[in-house]
Specification:
The chain is mainly α. It has 25 helices and six strands.
């Protein structure tokens, strides 16, 4: 009988890739961390070290790309588990036009630069498109590291990302049909206007069918599936179910509906969020998400050829400037044009100031269609590597840049509230509602429950939330609400904090909560404060400074459950 693993030593490219990739990523990531740099810089350098552009061991690039794709699927699935359909719709008014205009602006900027270099028009268009779309993995990792994924700013950035993904799906489907018109390979089949219109219509129909299927069937099937598997009591089977749903739906959506893997996994997670086991699903998939996201950065590094830095240094600098400066300025300007606060504009701008997986796919397709040269692909890869490495530094600069601008510019201080009608209460607001009221900061999941309880008790309140769509919806229901960052004194003044009886902060950020309470007490020394904390340590700090009554989520859940148990047992007659 032949041993089961007799051929193993002859083909271990996958094992060698994982061993070398993880090992080098750990070592270089640790060194980067010690040098006060983001660990992902080390992951990228690990990929460069085992890539074909450097001597020594060379990993299998095709395998690395597939492993990286799994990482993208799992990451987007995890985001979907924390992102409801309501969250997506709440930011549609800025995410849809913002993403479309930003893609157009970045494409024009990149294409104009390529034309200036003397490249053909078709190559310039593909080059500009590749520079216009942000990396899913980088954006989500950055938001998670800053704790912004569940914030208004994070939701806007993720919504923007989803629209970008949808736009790139259209581009990837239409590019082969448009290749002859753009000067691609002669072997590419010709396409007339009727065929092009049919392709566009078919693509839109497939994407619409996928979304409809997920909303109608997936919304009911996935929670039910999790419930059935959870009833078996097997942790391994539950984890397998979660991973199968993420990867299976992503693969099926790509094969059947021509939707990207990332977008398919995101919708799968968003539908599974309807289950009461969604938090457990997120926790079980977290280790795999982290491991495969590291392989994503390693695979990006493997694609990079360091020789381009010596052959075309000025062009590399121009590409990096377009990604880091051009895209950031365009995004910041668009967000400010929609009258969002300066902090939101800077956060979204920094989130999109890099390129990644869609850029690689687009560059590869352009190369195969004769629409992009090898030089263009190398410049895109160089821009991706450098922009990803610098993106964390750009995020770290948001706070200092905002403080610097506010300290030196009256215009910057006015940007948060300018002439936005939602930044102040309407003159028609009943003055009786603005005395001894509750100022409720944040109208997320916790804020909604508190507001509903206050409504039942007939207690007046004013909501302060940074999401303009939320404030607009509240005002349509006749509720008093203002938009803006409540750590800004002007926002609390507009919420009539001077006459309020209580300040309730539902945002689990101890730094912001402390600032809000300080401002509120300066304006209203007698006001009471109720604060929220996610951890016992954070709660201890807030209590130590005597900022108000602090509630911890897990602690309050335990108290409520214990109260229920005690109540039920005392109701039962003694035996």
């Amino acid at each position: 009988m032949t041993p089961l693993f007799s051929d193993m030593p002859h083909n271990v490219s996958l094992i060698a890739l994982i061993a070398a990739g993880f090992g080098l990523a750990m070592i270089l990531g640790l060194i980067a961390s010690r040098l006060r740099m983001p660990p992902l810089v080390g992951y990228l350098l690990a990929g460069v070290a085992i890539g074909p552009g450097t001597p020594g061991f060379v990993g299998d690039l095709a395998l690395a790309s597939q492993l990286a794709e799994i990482g993208v699927m799992l990451l987007m699935f995890g985001v979907g588990l924390h992102f409801s359909l309501g969250d997506l719709l709440a930011v549609r008014k800025i995410a849809v036009p913002g993403a479309i205009v930003q893609i157009a602006a970045a494409t024009v900027l990149g294409a104009a630069t390529a034309l200036w270099w003397g490249w053909p028009a078709g190559e310039a268009v593909v080059f500009g498109l590749a520079l216009s779309v942000a990396s899913t993995v980088v954006l989500l990792r950055a938001l998670e590291a800053k704790g912004l994924l569940d914030s208004t700013n994070g939701r806007i950035a993720v919504g923007w990302l989803v629209v970008e993904d949808l736009a790139m799906v259209m581009v990837l489907v239409l590019l082969p049909a448009l290749a002859p018109l753009l000067g691609g390979n002669e072997a590419t089949p010709g396409a007339d206007y009727k065929a092009l219109a049919l392709t566009i219509g078919l693509t839109l129909a497939k994407v619409s069918a996928f979304i409809a299927l997920m909303l109608v069937v997936g919304r009911r099937a996935f929670p039910r599936l999790l419930w059935l598997v959870a009833r078996t009591g097997s942790r391994e089977l539950f984890t397998l179910c979660v991973i199968t749903a993420a990867v299976g739906v992503a693969y099926a959506s790509a094969v059947l509906f021509d939707v990207s893997f990332a977008l398919g996994a995101f919708f799968a997670g968003m539908m599974m969020r309807e289950s009461e086991f969604s938090h457990r699903a997120a926790e079980d998939s977290l280790p795999l998400r982290d491991a495969f996201s590291v392989l994503f950065f390693v695979s990006v590094g493997m694609l990079f050829d360091p020789r381009v830095l010596m052959d075309e240094p000025l062009r590399v600098l121009v590409v990096v400037a377009i990604i880091l400066v051009g895209k950031t300025v365009a995004a910041v300007g668009l967000v400010l044009a929609f009258r969002y606060p300066l902090n939101t504009a800077l956060t979204v701008g920094a989130s999109l100031a890099q390129i990644g997986e869609f850029s690689f796919i687009l560059a590869g397709l352009g190369l195969s269609l004769g629409l992009l040269s090898l030089e263009g692909q190398n410049l895109i890869l160089a821009g991706a590597l450098i922009s990803i490495a610098l993106n964390a530094l750009l995020f770290a600069a948001i706070g200092p840049a905002q403080s610097w601008a506010r300290a030196r510019s009256a215009w910057a201080r006015q940007l948060d509230l300018r002439d936005d009608p939602r930044a102040a209460l309407p003159m028609s607001t009943d003055r009786k509602l603005l005395s001894d009221q509750v100022v409720l900061v944040g109208y997320g999941r916790v804020g909604k429950h508190i507001a509903a309880t206050l409504d039942r008790a007939h207690i007046h309140y004013v909501v302060a939330d940074s999401n303009r769509e939320v404030v607009e919806a509240l005002r349509k229901r006749g509720k008093a609400a203002v938009t803006g960052d409540a750590s800004d004194p002007i926002v609390l003044v507009q919420a009539h904090i001077t006459k309020a009886a209580m300040l309730v902060v539902t945002i689990p950020d101890p730094v912001s909560s402390r600032k809000m309470v300080d401002i509120a007490r300066k304006l209203n020394p007698d006001i009471e404060a109720v604060l929220r904390s996610e951890t016992e340590d954070g709660a201890a700090l807030l209590r130590k400074e005597k900022l108000g009554e602090v509630f911890v989520a897990e602690q309050e859940l335990a108290v409520s459950m214990a109260r229920h148990v005690a109540g039920r047992l005392t109701e039962q007659p003694a035996h």
